Amino acid sequence: MISKDFQRQLFKEELDVLEEAMSIIDSGKYKDKELFMDFENLVESYEKLLNIIRKIVKISDSQAKNLLWRESEIKSLLDNAGQGFLTFGNDFIVNREYSAECRRLFEKDISRSNILELLAGDDQENTKELEGSFQAIFETNDLELKQQYINESTKVIKLGQKYLDLKIKLINHLEDNTQLIMLILTDITDRYQAEKQIEFLSHHDKLTTLYNRTYVDKWIASFNAKEHFPLSVVVADMNGLKLANDIFGHLQGDKLLAKLAQVLSASTRASDVIARWGGDEFLILLPGTDAKDCTRICERIKENCKKIKDLPIELSVALGAATQNSTNNNIVDLFNIAENRMYSDKMLESSGIRRQLIMSVEKTLHTRFFEDSGHIKRVEKAVLRFAKKLGLKDNSIEVQYMQLLARLHDIGKITIPKEILGKKGPLTDDEWEIIKSHSEIGYRMAQSIGETVVAEAILAMHERWDGKGYPRYLEKEEIPFLARMFQIVDVYDVMTHLRPYRKAKLREEAIEELKKNQGSQFDPELLDIFLSNLEYITKG
Prior knowledge:
- There is one protein chain.
- The protein has 540 residues and is of the alpha+beta class.
- It has helices spanning 4-10, 12-27, 36-79, 100-106, 115-119, 124-139, 143-152, 189-203, 213-221, 225-228, 241-248, 250-267, 291-307, 331-348, 350-368, 374-389, 397-408, 418-421, 429-436, 438-448, 452-459, 481-495, 507-516, 524-532, 534-538; strands at 83-88, 156-159, 162-172, 179-187, 231-238, 273-276, 281-287, 317-324.
- The protein has four domains: 4-77; 83-193, PAS domain (Beta-Lactamase, 2-Layer Sandwich), CATH 3.30.450.20; 205-348, Alpha-Beta Plaits (2-Layer Sandwich), CATH 3.30.70.270; 369-538, Orthogonal Bundle (Hypothetical protein af1432).
- Helices cover 58% and strands 11% of the residues.
- It is elongated, with a radius of gyration of 46 Å.
């Protein structure tokens, strides 16, 4: 608002003239003159006119301030709208005024810049399309056609690492009534990437990034016999995933699945479709592939699996394949044939797979378990000699189970923290409960590799002859023979060798401890036979 002092300064000359005229009238010096009355009227009119002019100036100043305030408010709103606003004419040069967001998006002052150069990014085709749209909008006078060009113009562009949504508005330039394009730019990078991720996951498996069943269903729906025949299908099923999950945890199981997915991708062609079909099952669609080439691909997959190292268990897969040369068979039937052949392959390799799994478990026991590596070898030798003294033949099934039990009896301890297994002081109640859980865990692990008899023996390793053991409180002959026999050998070896939490006992001390628990912890008859043949059973 203009102050009184500023107004007086602005109209100083006019006010001085008015004051001088008023002083002449007030003095009465020319009162008797003929023109005095006219002079007085003229001064009065001059005063009124001056007051009107001063009011007009005052009002104009107020309106100007309101206009400036509104302009500032609108600019503030645009600068804080999170969108970029800019205008340009048919020369494609950006006008001086633009919102603050534009500076962030383009990372520089864009005044007088060429809009096409600003929006060029990495996509030259996109730039040409935008140039064509802008030119068409400026060149036509048909409003409906202008709107059509606007609606058909590019909606999203990539600018560096950003994705921008573009909206075009037409505005009239007030000075020369020419049309300008107002471009509204919105940074949609986060939303765009989230939408792309959702779109990706709708057709891909999250863990392996391979295609999923949804994608395969769509592929089959769009299947073109002329383009894809002969069509081969391979069903792949990972061996040992349940064991890996049980022993090493689901993170390691996931690692195996991801690694197999990499092998399948590396062993096939870019035109092939690889999908995760189920938990441990994969499907491979090989368009334009006959049975001979399909066999080569299957062989390549198995060879590449053998090359993978540093996994908890050896990477192994059962494969089944089928080929269709005409439309005589349904694709679903082709899948079923391939799946049945995969199960046959799994059955043929089951014994070899079981051996591999056992070896993997043994390796893990050696690398992660506190117990000395000689323990397993010693108890395996001792239990075989004990079996011989019990009248069991070397090639009997019982002896084979004993050997396997010697190798796997401590398998459940893999899941127990090392700081508990190697604790030198007494265990807390909670720690003791964790220790006791290893027989049940070992039972489940042995079941996972199909060794039911050995699993039952592992579960019963801590039962007692008097029924006060765990976990099922079995007594006497309720305890499996294999467990009763092996328990004696295992306890003796543990007592007579150094452990992290105690010193080794002397031979005589260990014998005394065994006798002390005869008939309470140990089967009395088996213990008598063991002690009677101790030197033979435990010799190096």
